[in-house]
Write a structure and sequence with these properties.
The chain is α+β, with helices and mostly antiparallel strands and 184 residues long. 20% of the residues lie in helices and 47% in strands. The chain has a 4-stranded mixed β-sheet with strand order 7-4-9-8, sandwiched between helices. It has a 3-stranded antiparallel β-sheet with strand order 1-2-3, with no helix packed on it. Helix 2 (151-159) packs across helix 3. It is globular and about 55 Å long.
């Protein structure tokens, strides 16, 4: 198996940039030798997801309208970790902002790339345990609804296609597997 890069980059030009992303167009020679373009979206933050789970088996989902989807979405608490920032601190911050929950225990359960055919976006997902209720303080751009429910109900929402956010699906399935294998 050859894992070397078969692509040749002829030139690159940034086409767009804001505080969260940049879009670059690359002139390339593809693996079969043909010339073409490749668009790449660079995310300036690491995506952070946190699945809170209390001792009684309850979790919390955040509901909000997602502009790119033109649809409402139920998700685990999520946010961004600016480059150079500790991901665990960002995870705790996002959980507190969106739910008011403060974890005594935070366990990294998954790292994943969210759309690696067009993006370099990295996601880190945590399981939050030993929770204390504090005060939520969502950002001004967030119009959130908070739902506390049995973890098994969230798992069924994934299976029924009611939860489609990739980090949420991965987190819920991973924790379900960890529970079934006696790892939690």
């Amino acid at each position: 198996m050859n894992e070397e890069n078969p692509w040749q980059t002829l030139s690159s030009e940034e086409k767009y940039s804001n505080n969260w992303i940049s879009v670059t167009e690359h002139q390339v020679i593809n693996p079969s030798g043909g010339k073409g373009i490749y668009g790449e979206v660079h995310f300036k933050n690491i995506a952070i997801g946190v699945l809170p789970l209390d001792e009684q088996g309850y979790t919390w989902l955040v509901g909000q309208y997602r502009y790119p989807l033109k649809a409402y979405s139920w998700e685990i608490p999520e946010g961004g970790c600016p480059e150079g920032t500790d991901p665990e601190l960002s995870a705790k911050r996002e959980l507190l902002e969106e739910t008011g929950l403060i974890p005594s225990k935070l366990i990294e359960i998954q790292r994943m790339h969210l759309s690696n055919s067009v993006s370099d976006e990295l996601a880190i997902i945590y399981l939050a345990k030993e929770l204390t209720q504090g005060q939520a303080a969502p950002e001004e751009t967030e119009d959130l609804q908070l739902l506390k429910l049995p973890f098994e109900k969230a798992y069924q929402m994934v299976l029924n296609g009611e939860i489609t956010d990739s980090m949420s699906v991965a987190a819920i399935l991973k924790v379900h597997i960890m529970q079934s294998e006696g790892l939690l």
